[in-house]
Amino acid sequence: MTTDAAARTERARKIYGRGETAVTALDDVTVTFPSGQFTAIMGPSGSGKSTLMHCAAGLDPLTSGRTYLGETDLSTLSDTALTKLRRERVGFVFQSFNLLPTLTAAENITLPLALAGITPDQDWIDLVTATVGLGNRLGHRPSELSGGQQQRVAVARALATRPDVIFADEPTGNLDSAAGAELLGFLRHAVDEFRQTIVMVTHDPIAAEYADAVVRLADGRVVEERATSGLRS
Ligand SMILES: Nc1ncnc2c1ncn2[C@@H]1O[C@H](COP(=O)(O)OP(=O)(O)OP(=O)(O)O)[C@@H](O)[C@H]1O
Fold first, then answer.
1. Could you tell me the pTM of the whole model?
2. Is the CB of residue 212 less than 8 Å from the CB of residue 198?
3. Is 51 in the pocket of ligand 1 (CB under 6 A)?
4. Nearest CA-CA partner of 142 in 92, 95, 112, 104
5. Does domain 35-60+75-227 correspond to CATH entry 3.40.50.300?
6. How far is the CA of 2 from the centre of ligand 1 (A)?
7. With CB atoms 3.0 to 4.6 Å apart as the test, which of 59, 71, 109, 217 could cross-link to 47 if both were Cys?
8. What is the value of ipTM here, to two decimals?
């Protein structure tokens, strides 16, 4: 396992608003997300988890400090370059699945490649699709799939471009515990078998046990960083 940083922040500060209503969502956060590892970000509501994820993924700029994807300092990039970087080098999984309703599961999986103008590596697409176990559901639209199946499509979609990092925001938040455990098993598998780097925001201590490390935030600061068991199902 390499320990290069797939992504990292340096003294990251994020302030929303100004004056008396200003909120410091990130307060001097320096954290590393090692390559090929599964990191969980935990902490109470309002502690800055989503803000950290959004800033590290290049969705939202910092007020001060730096955030890097590999060697790329995101603060130096234009909006166009950031969009390109997100399409080519970052994968996303959201709590609410965010699949396109008019596309089939298979079309949703290859959409990021189409958007990035990348020719699909069919062997890779077949492998990630087989891994998430959708079988004959691939020709179905999201409304014809269970929540667990939809989120598995979202994971396959995130893996399609072989991104440097997948950021997952409460990916099991809308799933029952069985579907949630299955999904976490897939994320774990992607790290173990494909050396995928994953950063997952979660409230759930059981979900965090699937990760290799936990970064805990409180009031916009890192209050704990610890290794976990990396639970394998
Ligand atoms: N767009 C925004 N404008 C103003 N304040 C914001 C904005 N986004 C977040 N905040 C504030 O920043 C702080 C951190 O929010 P954030 O969403 O990052 O926390 P979180 O730990 O992800 O919370 P939750 O677990 O409830 O999703 C909170 O006080 C929140 O109210």
1. 0.94
2. no
3. yes
4. 104
5. yes
6. 32
7. 217
8. 0.97
